[in-house]
Amino acid sequence: MTAHDRETAGGLDVARIREEFPILGSRVNGKPLVYLDNAATSQKPQPVLDALLHYYAEENANVHRGIHALSARATEAYEGARAKVRRFLNARHDAEIVFVRGTTEAINLVASAYARPRLREGDEVLISAMEHHSNIVPWQMVCRERGARLRVIPMNDAGELDLEAYERLLTPRTRLVSVVHVSNSLGTVNPVARMVELAHARGVPVLVDGAQAAPHLRVDVQALGVDFYAFSGHKLYGPTGIGVLYGRAELLEEMEPYQGGGDMIKSVTFERTLYNDLPYKFEAGTPHIAGAVGLGAAVDYVSRIGLERIAAYEHGLLEYGTRRLSGIGGLRLVGTAREKAAILSFVLDGIHPHDVGTVLDAEGIAIRTGHHCTQPVMDRFQIPATARASLAFYNTREEIDALVDGIYRAIELLR
Amino acid sequence: MSELQELYQDIILDHNRNPRNFGRLEGADRTADGYNPVCGDRITLDLRLEDGRIRDVAFKGSGCAISRASASLMTEAVKGLSQEQAERLFHAFHAMLTRAPGEPFDAEELGDLEVLSGVAEYPARVKCATLAWHTLHAALKQEPGTVSTE
């Protein structure tokens, strides 16, 4: 860690933070791990690992049912995690926080339980050109079923959405807007608050896919004005298999359940079932209790450091990485929006991203190569794939230097 | 030689830079498309058969060094082979790539294709090397649609 790192870290003690992530001390292919695939999934700090172990070792029971002490403790831990997430997003009520498997399930929930019963033939759902497949396919499915039309907000060559086109695409037929907050393949931070304002002016609700935003910038659902917000625990330094759908209580109340089963009911007879209150109406079956507890610990962890500080530090890394990568001959950055999160997607003249990934892996450097589940983005830029380094607050300038050295090695070996 | 140099041998890099039998084949009587959704590699393979033998073959597409070199080497290896011989070669090639570490393979049957044996150390790259072969298989069987490695 250089003096400069400490300086730009704004008091972020990255060396100490790194010690809290056990996996960051490991070696891969004989080299110290340089983990630059955080947009795919993030690593987990000791407090999250401890929370999982503590839950299973001392609190494990099913929630909301047993009258025994352990069940009460498990329920308290689970509902405590919900309250933490509510504060993290600045939602009004705990009941607006629905635990799901991840962003994908959250979007599918809204597509099924909100959009499906409301869409009529000729209605429109509006998404953007930079969506992840998980914010495309659920809408295609429900639109096809209901005879509705999926429309797409275009973007420019920098990877910024065309807001004028967006306004034109908001028509009396638009029933829902679903857009990504931070693009996973380009890094673009979209002007979500403004987009919500424009949609609401026409009475159109907005879902925001926050999978890449929640770990890297402060999210305030009330300030953004969103109707639905989705994110995944595993990208926020928490466990896999747990995620969150925030929904405004009024909308969630109006919606039918997503899945049927235990926990989502008040009473059941063969003739008639009375559904449970929010948020349980949307949480059929035994939930991922340990996952929620681990996510609660992750939320505590990043909140203790502070999202503003995390964002500032990562922005410093992004600027440094952009400068270093731009200096490499034949390298082109894909995604150069003015408002960007710490994602560096790039292509190299004459060298396929897959080969770059293999050479870097031999150096212990983990990046992602491919279309990043955003094939339409690749088509837009007329490339089959990119190599992508995605940064987190535990990354350092030395690691970016290692990436740059690795890219030069790939060029030397393959060109 | 490092494992990486073993993977990216000069002959592979040469086939990547200057792929043989690259382009579309005029008068082809079989064509198939292959696609690897994991990395976005695409290939179109044209064949001309005569008396049950592969008289001529060409490929076009975009992909990583391994997939391009493998396609290029394949076109050289299968020219003149009967359908059965080509399928047998694919089988031997596949066995070489998916063998356990240290396990032997039929180097004699494989000939020049042996240069791709290093791919076995990289399980994530096996599909890059086999895409062209899956596409050849589809062309020989005249399977409709695009072949996927998934």
Spatial strand sequence of the major β-sheet of chain B: 3-2-1-4
Helix amount of chain B: 40-55%
**How large a portion of the residues of chain B is in β-strands, by DSSP E?**
15-25%
Number of helix segments of chain A? Answer: 15
Number of helices of chain B: 6
Distance between the termini of chain A: 32 Å
Number of strands of chain B: 4
**Largest sheet report of chain B:** 4 strands, mixed
- Rg of chain B over CA atoms, rounded to whole Å, is 14 Å
Query: Biggest β-sheet of chain A, characterized?
Result: 7 strands, mixed
Can I get a quick summary?
Chain A is α/β, with parallel strands linked by helices. Chain A is built from 15 helices and 17 strands. Chain B has 150 residues and is α+β, with helices and mostly antiparallel strands.
What does this structure look like?
The complex is a heterodimer of chains A (415) and B (150). Chain A has 415 residues and is an alpha/beta fold. Chain A is 41% helix and 16% strand. In chain A, the strands form 5 sheets. A 7-stranded mixed β-sheet of chain A has the order 4-10-9-8-7-5-6, with helices on both faces. In chain A, helix 8 links the parallel strand 7 and strand 8. In chain A, helix 3 packs antiparallel against helix 11, helix 4 packs across helix 11 and helix 12 runs parallel beside helix 15. Chain A is globular, with a radius of gyration of 22 Å. The mean pLDDT of chain A is 96. Chain B is α+β, with helices and mostly antiparallel strands and 150 residues long. Chain B is 41% helix and 20% strand. Chain B is built from 6 helices and 4 strands. A 4-stranded mixed β-sheet of chain B has the order 3-2-1-4, with helices on one face. In chain B, helix 2 packs across helix 3. The radius of gyration of chain B is 14 Å and the shape is globular. The model of chain B has no long low-confidence stretch (mean pLDDT 92). Chains A and B meet through helix 13 of A and helix 1 of B.
